[in-house]
Write a structure and sequence with these properties.
Layout (H helix, E strand, L loop, with lengths): L1 H9 L2 H26 E2 L11 H8 L1 H12 L2 E6 L2 E6 L2 H9 L5 E2 L8 H4 L9 H14 L2 H16 L2 H10 L5 E3 L4 E3 H8 L17 E5 H18 L1 H6 L1 H13 L3 H5 L6 H27 L6 H7 L10 H32 L1 H18 L5 H5 L2 H13 L6 E5 L3 E4 L5 E4 L4 E4 L1 H4 L23 H4 L18 H18 E5 L5 E3 L6 E3 L3 E6 L6
Bound molecules: protoporphyrin IX containing FE.
């Protein structure tokens, strides 16, 4: 009887357990399905098949990014011919872009188009281990002690006058010529050029401007930065003796880097042929200079010397062709980027009187403290000027899109929690030009407001790393950032101390068509020479 009762009471138990298990199973499947639906491929940009993506991209990549970000969010894929480019916009998603190891996201494939310009055996033509060693050479060449001496040379470049050099040359006793295999340099000139003091300086580079006048600031700053970069990076031989030749060759090298070169770097077009001829000639020139330095045993304070003295971990010295390639890479990395940033900084200072006055006041304070001297440490004290440059660079990063090649599948999570799977084989991109203006990071993001970086506000830090990416960041962050700031500060500090300016052309527009995006057209300024007075 009791057994019957027990059976009666429990006869539904197996069915209940089955039901429960089914519910749990369905919930699990449902949960997994929900997870899968949130973990999906990024949305794709709508465009006509085959060439649609290319047309959208060529019409203006940033315009495309702006429109698609509004429609699709921070991660989306553009089908460009047979390639898939997935964009990551904003620090939350781009952190993987910047931090991923080379085995997951690499630069070599996407930046291959630089190889004919930089040359064989360097940077993007070598595997990652060698490239890391070569970037170590860059890091060493840009250490603070090196920067100190570069600054002295930059200031000298901005302030020493051509007529002073000529006078020195004319006064020289011809027995005092330093002869080596390649060049002869008057000793008087060497004294002046190696001097750490600028007491010798009689007039400045800008002396050719006269007492007052009108100039194209963009042209002038481009020219000045070629001079400073030539002296600090390429070395004295180039700056003093071969400047015109080497500048013309670099011009051809530069013009050989066209938008079409990104896809077809070896296309037999005249610009590429001129590039290749120029590259060969530059290699010959540097081979002679390097031989000359080695055989005379002379050593200089420049990047060329650092590369000559560099050694790989296995003890091997750099070859002439590697040294030349690394120098070209340095010049390409720093030349346009710095001159464009100097021009935007000037244009904004001349547009907004409040920031100009703040920058001038800072110069006055420093002059009161240190006198007229300018050196690495005094430039480092220029916080106001630093923020003015940084803000110009936030609004106008010259490298508008950064790329990587993905080698493994990975997942990214957006700010609002959506997860996307990025398959191996995609090109991954991020855009400093767009991400630097995200309104949830920067207040009133399109306006020029250097104070946003001041203590207390620090908008770029508040949102975490990779909120300000004009210099990239993470694993491949710019190695030349301190050099670039010092160079631009040295120039603007000199200009603020010696001239008054007025912008006479309309505020410049952005030249989106350039490979390194800069200022469109001329930036005409009226200047008047005046010495900044300290009360
Ligand atoms: C305003 C001036 C400059 C800007 C805006 C700038 C910007 C950048 C950016 C965005 C990157 C990262 C590229 C990427 O992630 O794909 C980069 C990398 C680099 N930059 Fe600069 N740069 C400037 C000046 C310089 C200068 C003056 C030099 C050297 C003299 C230099 C040397 C380098 C090097 C060697 C790298 C590669 C680092 C690596 O891949 O590990 N840059 N730069």
């Amino acid at each position: 009887m009791a057994a019957m009762d027990l059976w009666e009471r429990n006869k539904y138990l197996p069915a209940g357990i089955l039901l429960l298990a089914t519910v749990v199973f369905l919930k699990l499947v449902w949960g997994l399905a929900a997870l899968r639906s949130r973990r999906r491929l990024p949305p794709a940009v709508k465009a006509f098949p085959l060439v649609g993506g290319l047309i959208r991209f060529m019409k203006g990549p940033i315009m495309m990014v702006r429109e698609e970000y509004a429609k699709l969010g921070s991660v989306f894929t553009l089908n460009l011919l047979n390639r898939r480019i997935t964009f990551f916009i904003g620090p939350e998603v781009s952190s993987h872009f910047f931090k991923a190891p080379e085995s997951d996201l690499s630069q070599q494939e996407v930046y291959q188009f630089n190889v004919p310009t930089f040359g064989r055996g360097v940077v993007f033509d070598v595997d990652y281990c060698v490239r890391q060693e070569q970037f170590r050479f860059f890091t060493e060449a840009l250490r603070v002690n090196k920067l100190r001496s570069y600054v002295d040379q930059m200031i000298l470049e901005a302030e020493v006058s051509e007529c002073m050099l000529l006078n020195a040359y004319l006064q020289v006793d011809h027995h005092q010529l330093v002869d080596c295999c390649f060049i002869s340099i008057p000793l008087v000139l060497l004294d002046i050029l190696n001097s750490n003091t600028i007491n010798y300086i009689l007039q400045d580079y800008f002396s050719k401007w006269g007492e007052s006048g009108t100039v194209d600031l963009k042209y002038e700053l481009e020219h000045l930065i070629i001079l400073t970069a030539s002296r600090c990076l390429l070395g004295r031989e180039v700056r003093d003796k071969l400047f015109d030749d080497v500048s013309a060759l670099f011009h051809d090298l530069d013009n050989g880097m066209r938008p079409i070169s990104v896809i077809f770097p070896y296309l037999p077009i005249p610009a590429h042929r001129r590039r290749d001829r120029a590259r060969l000639r530059i290699a010959e020139i540097f081979a002679s200079i390097i031989k000359s330095r080695k055989c005379s045993g002379s050593s200089e304070d420049d990047m060329l010397q650092c590369f000559i003295d560099s050694k790989y971990k296995n003890g091997r010295s750099t070859t002439e062709s590697e040294i030349t390639g690394l120098l070209i890479a340095a010049l390409f990395a720093g030349q346009h980027t710095s001159s464009i940033t100097s021009t935007w900084t000037g244009a904004y200072l001349l547009k907004y009187n409040e920031y100009l006055s703040a920058a001038i006041d800072e110069q006055k304070k420093l002059m009161k403290k240190h006198g007229e001297v300018l050196d690495h440490d005094i430039l480092s004290e220029m916080e106001v000027l630093y923020r003015c440059i940084k803000e110009a660079l936030r609004l106008h990063p010259p490298l508008i899109i950064l790329l990587r090649q993905s080698h493994s599948d990975f997942t990214v999570k957006t700010r609002d929690g959506a997860e996307y799977e990025i398959p191996k084989g995609h090109i991954v991109a991020t855009s400093p030009a767009f991400a630097n203006r995200l309104p949830y990071i920067y207040k009133d993001p399109d306006s020029y407001d250097p104070g946003r970086f001041a203590p207390g506000r620090e908008e770029d830090k508040a949102a975490g790393p990779f909120s300000y990416i004009s210099f990239g960041g993470g694993r491949h962050g710019c190695l030349g950032e301190p050099f670039a700031y010092l160079q631009i500060k040295a120039i603007w500090s000199h200009l603020l101390r010696n001239f008054e300016f007025e912008l006479v052309s309309p505020f410049p527009e952005i030249d989106w068509n350039a490979m390194v995006v800069g200022v469109k057209g001329q930036v005409m300024v009226r200047y008047k020479r005046r010495k900044l007075l300290v009360e």
